[in-house]
Design brief:
The chain is built from two helices and eleven strands. The chain is α+β, with helices and mostly antiparallel strands. Strands 2-10-4-8-6-7 form a six-stranded antiparallel β-sheet, with no helix packed on it. Strands 1-11-3-9-5 form a five-stranded antiparallel β-sheet, with no helix packed on it.
């Protein structure tokens, strides 16, 4: 009798645990599950909408002739390829590494941190295929 009672308790416990496992959803509207393929699609593909990367650096790839335009405070670091500065009449990009302002059509130095001081259309244009690390709000044209 004692063995039957213990066996019944074990069976009930297994059924209860199994039910919890089966009914537990991996994600819902309040706590969604994000797959690696989704993240790669969002962060690695060509972006043409307004992007905000305030919380970290995003790696973007530009084809020759494409432009990346930053908003005020956006940071750029050219990691591969060559690009030129897109400036306005008010000024260019602040080269924090060398400590001076890069004028319109100036060559972007690789591995230099550039900061967009104001949101007036400043950025960089890819001369060939480039990789740029970006922190802040930007658009790709």
């Amino acid at each position: 009798m004692k063995k039957a009672r213990i066996m019944a308790i074990v069976v009930c416990a297994c059924i209860l645990i199994g039910t919890v496992i089966v009914l537990a959803a991996p994600g819902n509207e309040d706590d969604p599950v994000i797959s690696l393929s989704y993240l790669k699609n969002v962060f690695m593909n060509e972006v043409t909408e307004y992007i905000d990367t305030q919380n970290g650096l995003a790696k973007i790839e530009l084809k020759a002739g494409q432009k990346v335009i930053g908003q005020s405070g956006t940071e750029f670091i050219l990691r591969m390829g060559s690009a030129t500065v897109i400036a306005t009449e008010s000024g260019g990009l602040a080269d924090i590494t060398d400590g001076y302002d890069k004028a319109n059509k100036a060559e972007v130095s690789p591995n230099h941190m550039l900061i967009v001081p104001v949101s007036d259309g400043r950025g960089m244009k890819a001369n060939n295929d480039v990789i740029v690390l970006v922190k802040g709000k930007y658009t790709i044209e």
